[in-house]
């Protein structure tokens, strides 16, 4: 059902007769058709969609229109939403999962004709079509980040990690929960708690790495030290490395509070600066997404160089469902969430692991577990919304709600996956000295 205030009920394309200026809702109808699955209203008084729709999108200002038309797709929508120019009514800003699901399943885009595009441009006017500064939460585009160094240089990687992780430890405590773990949990059932599933993930990694008391573990990209502390509690000597100063500070305090300082250390350091070698195991949980696909040979080569013969590596990271797509992230993810982040398929990762001489012994996909993990984080953000907004501001809190809800959908729909790859550094004669069959509890 199409409803316009002070506008004819004919289709928007037909409204071109006589050069009449189109309303915002008429422009939207050209792009998505009449069957909008949500209610839409705009600052010019026009509307589209059923008044009885569960969700209502309200475009509040010309600035929001500028964001939408100058960056079509997810980046423009994110800008309008984060800035407050596009209001979602019927969904909590900390958890817009349901409205994103409805739009993803039912919204279909049309390609306007050249004549329609010209009419849209005339109707909007130059002032609306002229690009403007994005919301302050947005990172610079890739081509302008050169001032921070070449892509995936130590300096630029440090800045990218700072953008995402040095938001506020207090904010992350509210969103992630007591585990302070910002990576996929391993669920044994859909009704398992987030905390139990995160503990289960650390247990799974620990057992896959065949660690025992007295062993030495290097955990690169260690975050707030969840894996570091899990292993240290079991008598393993651990070094963790993170490029986030706030993570390192939080982790060192947690280590001291648990009385683990004799076994565990988290360094504010690039993983490439870790000098020690001869580790029994190396874990990389959620780092590979940040290092760049073209750096995989040196990355896995570094890991191999840190292992003793017979040592094990576990790589846990987000992947694409195939090995064909461009590795670069989309506009919203790159500019608001993971600057310079890149994803590829598990096949490419396994190939690179093998090509440096490590032997892959096992791999598995935890895609559904990541969807459940993200749902848990969204619930936490929604439940602690007021405190999160007070800590980081509404715009930044909206970024995380939008990112996590959208990512949950992505994992549910197999747009992205989460793979764990286990490999061993063989001895000189090709010996692995491992059990013949998997030695861990799945």
Biggest sheet features = 7 strands, mixed
| CATH class category of the largest domain | Alpha Beta
* Head-to-tail CA distance between termini: 51 Å
Low-confidence stretches: 1-11
Helix content: 40-55%
Number of domains: 2
Radius of gyration: 24 Å
* Count of helical regions: 18
CATH-assigned fold name of the largest domain: Rossmann fold
Order of helices and strands: HEEEHHEHHHHHHEHEHEEHHEHHEHHHE
Strand order of the largest sheet: 7-6-5-8-9-11-10
CATH architecture of the largest domain, please?
3-Layer(aba) Sandwich
Report the strand count: 11
**Secondary-structure class:** alpha/beta
Strand % is 5-15%
Described by the principal axes of the CA atoms, the overall outline is elongated
CATH superfamily caption of the largest domain: Vaccinia Virus protein VP39
Mean pLDDT: 91
Protein name: Class I SAM-dependent methyltransferase
Family: Belongs to the CFA/CMAS family.
Pfam families: CMAS
GO biological process, one term: methylation
């Amino acid at each position: 059902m199409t409803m316009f205030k002070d506008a004819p009920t004919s289709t928007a394309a037909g409204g071109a007769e006589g050069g009449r200026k189109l309303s915002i809702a008429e422009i939207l109808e050209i792009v998505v058709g009449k069957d909008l699955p949500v209610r839409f209203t705009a600052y010019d008084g026009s509307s589209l969609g059923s008044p009885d729709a569960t969700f209502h999108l309200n475009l509040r200002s010309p600035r929001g229109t500028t964001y939408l038309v100058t960056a079509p797709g997810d980046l423009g929508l994110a800008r309008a939403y984060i800035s407050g120019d596009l209001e979602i009514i019927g969904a909590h800003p900390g958890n817009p999962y349901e409205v994103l699901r409805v739009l993803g399943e039912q919204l279909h885009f049309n390609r306007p004709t050249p004549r329609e595009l010209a009419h849209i441009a005339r109707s909007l006017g130059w002032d609306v079509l002229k690009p403007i500064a994005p919301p302050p939460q947005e990172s610079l585009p890739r081509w302008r980040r050169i001032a921070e160094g070449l892509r995936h240089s130590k300096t630029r990687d440090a800045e990218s990690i700072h953008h995402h992780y040095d938001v506020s430890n207090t904010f992350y405590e509210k969103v992630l929960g007591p585990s302070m773990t910002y990576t996929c949990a391993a669920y044994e059932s859909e009704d398992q708690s987030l905390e139990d599933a995160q503990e289960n993930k650390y247990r799974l990694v620990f057992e896959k790495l065949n660690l025992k008391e007295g062993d030495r573990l290097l955990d690169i990209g260690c975050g707030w030290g969840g894996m570091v502390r899990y292993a240290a509690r079991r008598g393993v000597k651990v070094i963790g490395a993170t490029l986030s100063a706030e993570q390192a500070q939080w982790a060192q305090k947690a280590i001291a509070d648990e009385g683990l300082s004799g076994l565990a250390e988290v360094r504010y350091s690039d993983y490439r600066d870790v000098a020690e070698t001869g580790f029994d195991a190396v874990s990389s949980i959620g780092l590979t997404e940040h290092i760049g696909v073209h750096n995989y040979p040196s990355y896995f080569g570094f890991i191999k160089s840190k292992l003793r013969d017979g040592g094990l590596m576990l790589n846990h990271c987000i992947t694409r469902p195939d090995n064909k797509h461009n590795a670069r992230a989309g506009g919203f993810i790159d500019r608001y969430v993971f600057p310079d982040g890149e994803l590829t398929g598990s096949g490419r990762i396994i190939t690179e692991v093998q090509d440096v001489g490590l032997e892959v012994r096992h791999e598995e996909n935890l895609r559904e577990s990541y969807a459940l993990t993200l749902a848990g984080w969204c619930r936490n953000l929604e439940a602690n919304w007021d405190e999160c907004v007070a800590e980081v501001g509404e715009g930044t809190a909206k970024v995380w709600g939008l990112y996590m809800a959208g990512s949950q959908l992505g994992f549910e729909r197999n747009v992205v996956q989460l793979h764990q790859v286990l490999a061993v550094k063989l001895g000189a004669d090709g010996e692995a000295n491992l059990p013949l069959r998997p030695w861990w509890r799945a």
